[in-house]
Amino acid sequence: MADFLVLAIESSCDETAAAVVKNGRTVLSNVIDSQIDIHTKYGGVVPEIASRNHIANIDRVIRTALSDAGVTLSQIDGIGVTKGPGLVGALLVGVAEAKAIAFAADKPLIGVNHIEGHVCANFIEHPDLEPPFLCLIVSGGHTHLAMMEDYGRFDILGRTVDDAAGEAFDKVARAIGLGYPGGPKIEKAAKEGDPESIRFPRGKVDGSAYDFSFSGMKSAVLNYLNHEEMMGNPISVPDVAASFQQAVIDVLTEHAVTAAKELGQRRLVLAGGVASNRTLRAALQKACEAQGITLYVPSPVYCTDNAAMIGAAAYYHFAKGERDGMDLNAVPGLRL
Fold first, then answer.
1. What's the whole-number mean pLDDT along residues 296-311?
2. Cα separation of 321 and 315, whole Å?
3. Which positions ≥6 away from 255 have C-beta within 8 Å?
4. Where residue 141 falls among pLDDT bands split at 50, 70, 90?
5. Residue 99: pLDDT over 80
6. CATH no. of 5-120+303-319
7. Is the peptide bond between 201 and the residue preceding it cis, with omega within 30 degrees of 0?
8. Which backbone phi and psi does 154 adopt, to 5 degrees?
């Protein structure tokens, strides 16, 4: 397959993003318009506001991505877009835009699973990485342990049965007064705290070694806060943040390394927004080195929502001859 340029669009939550990616591995441009400042005052993403901002910004973001890449729309070989999972209104903005461009410019179209995109972010910076491999996907809405058997094909080993890890971070951050977005604020506060000061439970799922449960951890934090308040004891926000973060990291690390050992996998890929957490990255790196496992992690800019990862994933669908029609629709509950 000759050089293939994908114009990729991502609008699943509160980032309006577009990128131009060559051959699934080389990023020519990656533009992200974040709405974090807008949603922070509400304590989380407001779907209606997110959708309206996508509509206002998406044309500009796409034009900038093409300009930064030094290409015109006529030089693009295919249009890739996130079709799900995510907020339905936000997804529909990106899908409608991608369909309009594909129709008007007569370009092939492919809808991409957002979670798959997170995994494919690793292809951008690790040219030697090829499936099959084990992957741990940790984001605001999803926590998965899976084997990527081939491009676009996954075998799910485990997933969260309640809250995703990132969701738990957001809820705990709100409870201890740190606000939104929870993950980065807990990580920052945890640097000043003692991760061994409070022993929060490590969630397990009976009968399933690879599934995750973070709701109990969140509840344990809330119970601790209520108890300390009732007793009139001072609460150390850094200690709570560090202890909760360590509990989550312990579970993620144990699950991933145990699966790698039991399945004989020597490569582990970390992906998703929570993968930008430096404490998690360091803990996984240490655990993997002890077991002779090679850990692959993308740079933080490719961990959080971006369109370059969608372009990487889209390329491999195009390479297999897959195409979507003008009936492509958003699928907010799409599963990996």
1. 96
2. 10
3. 136, 145, 158, 209, 210, 212
4. confident
5. yes
6. 3.30.420.40
7. no
8. -125, 145
